[in-house]
Amino acid sequence: MSQIDEAFIQAYAPPQVDSPQASSPQQAGQPNAPHIQLHAPVQPPMPASVPAPNPSVAWAPEPIPAPHFVAAPAQTVEAAAPAGPATERRPLSTFSAPEQPATTAFNPVFEVDGFRWPKITDDLLSAHHQLLVPVAEQLLDVSEQGRSLIGIVGTRPNVGCSTVLMCLARLVASVGKSVALVDANFAKAALARDLGLEFDMGWQDVLTGDLPLAECVVKSLKDRIALLPLARQTGAATELLASIQTSVTAGVLRYHYDVVLFNLGNAAEPPQDEAAFSIMQHCRLDASIIVADTERTGIEPVDTLLSLFGQKCLGVIGNSAT
After folding, report:
1. β-strand pairing of 218-220 with 225-228
2. pLDDT tens per residue, range 257-271
3. Helices first, then strands: H and E counts in the chain
4. If you write DSSP's letter for every residue of 65-122 in order, what string do you get?
5. Strand 313-319's sheet: what is its strand order?
6. Burial of 196 per CB tally in 10 Å (0-12, 13-18, 19+)
7. What predicted TM-score, i.e. pTM, was given to this entire model?
């Protein structure tokens, strides 16, 4: 580990607190259920096992349409030397948490027993987890190649970007991987609220240098997932993201978490397009997945995002629910 990395870790080691407290969670609003309809991925997945849904959850009586995922063309994905045959894909159940090296730990100050996941994520994972598993497997594949910073981006507001991000995070964490969620939607800061939290501090306070990263991250003990929220939306995102703390944030999260998912929101239109571009540059995102409305979104917003992420785009998820 380089001296710069050690300095980052020392700078962001959490302070000792006597009795950290997190704000009382409140019930998040229920979003409209998306139908994500999944095309077969480029490489067919092997059978995978996913934990059974919690029997205490009241499931929706009507079936939810399935998601579809269009994988990016093979030539647009940065290839790594395969460990086996080109057509082989490891099932989700074969991934396991890596042995943690002996190093300075990153310990978020705030902890909660568990996040209050929106009901739509429970419904999707119960009804269509076998279709979402191949996407989660692809994220695990690229993370094992060292590409662990991944942006989830939508073609318009309310297209289901946050829902997809939360479903994928839960699947990745279900095999023992540590996951960090970053609310990078400066035009609509809502990820903490979606998870049932009220938090009056967030990534903005890290970017301005007012608080260390460890004091703005909330860790869910039950879910094995950490959240770096945005306390509020802002129109001056590009100025904040020009801070050296942007790359510091990405470096610390990359080092301590197996997969880091950035919620980039509607990056096809201003002002979020500039924020997403700044995050891609300063955080050096490794990959992205586009969430598009298959019924109302034309090809132009998708092309805009493809030109932004280029070869880092893993594919497109079509959502016809909104």
Report:
1. antiparallel
2. 999 999 999 988 888
3. 9, 9
4. PPPEEEEPPGGGS-----SS-TT----GGG--PPPPPSS-----SEEES-----HHHH
5. 68-71, 313-319, 287-293, 149-154, 259-266, 179-183, 225-228, 218-220, 110-112
6. middle
7. 0.70
Is residue 159 exposed (0-12), middle (13-18) or buried (19+ Cβ within 10 Å)? buried
Distance CA 142, CA 163 (A): 21
Indicate the DSSP class of residue 311.
G
CB 248 within 8 A of CB 12: yes
Buried/exposed 37-58: b ≥16 CB within 10 Å, e otherwise:
bbeebbbebeebebeeeeeeee
Which sequence spans correspond to the domains of the chain?
A: 70-78+106-322
What's residue 56's pLDDT?
43
Residue pointed to by tokens 């490794």: 286
Measured in degrees and rounded to the nearest 5, phi and psi for residue 189 equal -80, 100
Give pLDDT tens digits for 21-61.
444 444 444 444 444 444 444 444 444 444 444 444 444 44
C-alpha–C-alpha distance, residues 203 and 213, integer Å: 8
Here the tokens at position 321 are: 């629910």
pLDDT average, residue stretch 224-236:
89
Q: What pLDDT is recorded for position 12?
A: 53
* Angstrom distance (rounded) from CA 206 to CA 215: 9
Cβ atoms 220, 257 nearer than 8 A: no
The amino acid occupying position 184 is A
**Which tokens in the block code for residue 239?**
């100025």
Topology, domain 70-78+106-322:
Rossmann fold (3.40.50)
Is-cis flag, bond preceding 229, omega within 30? no
Torsion over CA of 28, 33, 34 and 39, rounded to 10 degrees?
120
